[in-house]
What does this fold into?
Amino acid sequence: MNALTRCLDTYWSSSIGKKLIVAITGLVLVVFLAGHLSGNLLMYVGREAFNEYAHFLHTMLHGAGVWIARIGLLVMLVLHVAATISLTRQNRAARQAYEHKATIQASKSSRIMIVSGLTILAFVIFHILHYTVRVDSDLAKLGATDPYGMVVVGFRNPLVVIFYVISMTLLCSHLSHGVASIFQTLGLRSKKAQGLIKQISLAYSLAIWAGFISIPISVLAGIINL
Ligand code: HEM
It folds into this structure.
């Protein structure tokens, strides 16, 4: 067993270790979302700026950069989901042994996290088929030369926009709870800082929600167009 699998095994065998895995992978995904949104907001600057940005992403480190990011994100996502499932199973077993009001409350909020988390997972699969794999042949043709045009045409379908808005809303709910939990797991949530951390989590989630939903809505409203 090499050092990395030994280290993961140590973390995986304890519940606090798994919580740390959920927190650290969650933090990486939270940072990714801020970066992805910043890049996507270039849609408001115009076709040239957005296409230059997309070109940069695909050519950095001679094309290896985008694959390093993809593999890194996939590892983070798999670890995040697997550790959450394992923790949920562990909590359920503990709950059966000891029923208490507080545990029932905790399970309610973790159920909301699981439902929003699974919807985000379904969204990410749809989103990758939509804009990265480009299963739609019209989007595939545009994606190769004009990513800006591909995003605009992709959001001309109101059903797609509704799906994005619902998914982003659940993402916002997931983040507002998740970001505060990261602080707690990393031991950064003192009683004094609790209120501030709650506000930071909510402000961050709302900013991510508003930024992401604004793009498909602006396309439908004709504010972003070809
Ligand atoms: C309006 C909102 C969004 C827009 C306009 C958008 C746009 C895009 C585009 C154009 C790509 C393709 C990049 C390429 O391969 O050229 C992409 C990829 C991706 N997006 Fe988004 N995105 C949005 C929201 C999100 C959200 C909320 C998430 C995560 C929850 C997300 C996660 C990803 C991932 C994981 C990829 C795959 C990266 C890759 O392998 O290429 N996106 N997005």
Q: What stands out?
A: Residues 3-220 form a domain with the 3 helical TM bundles of succinate and fumarate reductases fold (CATH 1.20.1300).
